[in-house]
Amino acid sequence: MAGLLSQGLTSSEQAEQLRRRLGYDLPLFQQYLHYLGRLLRGDLGVSLYSGQPVSELIGAALPSTIALAGASLLIAIPLGALLGGVAGWGSLPTFRRLAGILASLFTSLPVSATGVIGLLILGRLAGSDPPSSQTGLWLPAAVLGSAASGPFARAVQAGLQSTRRSPFILAARARGLRQNGRLIWHAARPTLPAIASLLAVEAAFLFAGTVVTETVFSRPGLGRTLVRSILQGDFPIAQAIVGLAALIYVATQVLADGLARSADPRLRERT
Fold first, then answer.
1. What CA–CA distance (Å, rounded) separates 146 from 73?
2. Tag placement on the chain: N or C end, fewer CB within 10 Å?
3. 142-165: per-residue pLDDT in tens?
4. CB under 8 Å, gap of 24 or more: what pairs does 58-62 form?
5. pLDDT confidence tier of residue 6, bands split at 50, 70 and 90
6. Residue 133 pLDDT class (50, 70, 90 cuts)
7. pTM for this predicted structure
8. Is 230 exposed, middle or buried (0-12, 13-18, 19+ CB in 10 A)?
9. How many angstroms separate the CA atoms of 147 and 206, rounded?
10. What are the domain boundaries of the chain?
11. Taking a C-beta distance cutoff of 8 angstroms, is the pair 244, 204 a contact?
């Protein structure tokens, strides 16, 4: 309501009528109960600006965000596994240090900074800033995926370093297992539960990263819709998107727990 009044889109009388029609004149506890009842029926409310159902607005923006997050995850997992594997298991110290530096760099740089750097590099290579670069998928996904690969690489590196001198690895080498992909997989298996939990956290990070990435690259999606709704004071859209983010976070955590139990029999024995 404050956003509508501040931009002169309605009068005080019209705002009061709208408050009564939407039920915002009721006590907060009653508003909360009414909201829960509508939520159980699948009714997320309507936008205060456009009057469109919030579910339709989210449904229109969701595919773009899913495509960006999925493409970013496809970049983050192999890149993080490569950097973490080299940093934690590489035979050449120079490559190990370089992989560790890149992992730290991807972890520390904010998505907004890497996005601006990516746009500058692309503009320099192309001679200008092509409009298609702001609406495409590969550059935003590369920026968000590289940022997500840093923590994943650190987890893989720490896991490999902790198991590299373990007795079962020394026994495997004594049996003639050479330092190849099979031995690395043998060493990485004990770290899979921790990596699965980290991937669940990374899924939540990717959703938060889409807010910045879609804003920097002027890309449509849930993140940009959330920013616009907050700036306009259109809180039915904002609270629906935040609730969806919380639901995604809980679902990924439950999935990660299931993957961890399937990867480590010891976790199944404790439950």
1. 9
2. C
3. 888 888 888 888 888 877 777 766
4. 58/222, 58/225, 58/237, 58/240, 58/241, 58/244, 61/220, 61/221, 61/222, 61/224, 61/225, 62/221, 62/222
5. very low
6. very low
7. 0.76
8. middle
9. 9
10. 62-262
11. no
